[in-house]
Amino acid sequence: MNRLPRGGVAIIDAKGVEVFDYSFANELFGKSLLALPREYPERFLIVENLTGYTRENLSMALESLNLAMIERKGGKLLLIGKVHPSDQATFSIIASASEPVTATFLKDRLRINLTAVNERLSKLTVLALVRRHSGVSPAGRQQYLYSVLS
């Protein structure tokens, strides 16, 4: 991970891995995800090609650690692990957007107040699930833009 530049994405391809148990998932993924924001800021980790069995064990391990991560499945980005439905909804909108989005955009799409949107965005950013960029609003003020792996 230390060779990965800021903003980089490490992909764990589980293709060909038929089985790994809860203990392995907890050890490998748990330690990696816990270290990610602290030791490797602005770097992202995704997993792909999980089997039903490996997905179940990974999800249970992540839930036990109150963690979530991105899974690429069939070209779509999903969250697995300890994921509240409101965080999944926020992530899905950001992931499906063709360009980075603002908190105001999300507020309008989710039909919730700006404080709630900012709490969700903060959580997703700290967990290294979304990327936060500085930008400028049409009125010339600083604002943050959010994207997933772009």
Write up what this structure looks like.
By secondary structure, the chain is an alpha/beta fold. It has two domains: 1-82, no CATH class; 84-150, Orthogonal Bundle (Arc Repressor Mutant, subunit A), CATH 1.10.10.10. It has helices at 22-39, 52-64, 85-96, 103-110, 114-126; strands at residues 9-13, 44-48, 68-73, 76-81, 131-136, 142-147. The chain has a four-stranded mixed β-sheet. The model has no long low-confidence stretch (mean pLDDT 92).
For the secondary structure, the number of strands is 6
Distance between the termini: 18 Å
- What would you call the shape? globular
Number of domains: 2
Strand content: 15-25%
Q: Structural class of the secondary elements?
A: alpha/beta
* Largest β-sheet summary: 4 strands, mixed
Q: Please give the oligomerization state of what you see.
A: single chain
Number of helices: 5
Helix and strand pattern: EHEHEEHHHEE
User: Could you name the ranges where pLDDT drops below 50 across 5 or more consecutive residues?
Assistant: none
Features:
single chain; 150 residues; alpha/beta; Arc Repressor Mutant, subunit A; 2 domains
Briefly say what this structure is.
The chain is 43% helix and 23% strand. The protein has helices at 22-39, 52-64, 85-96, 103-110, 114-126; strands at residues 9-13, 44-48, 68-73, 76-81, 131-136, 142-147.
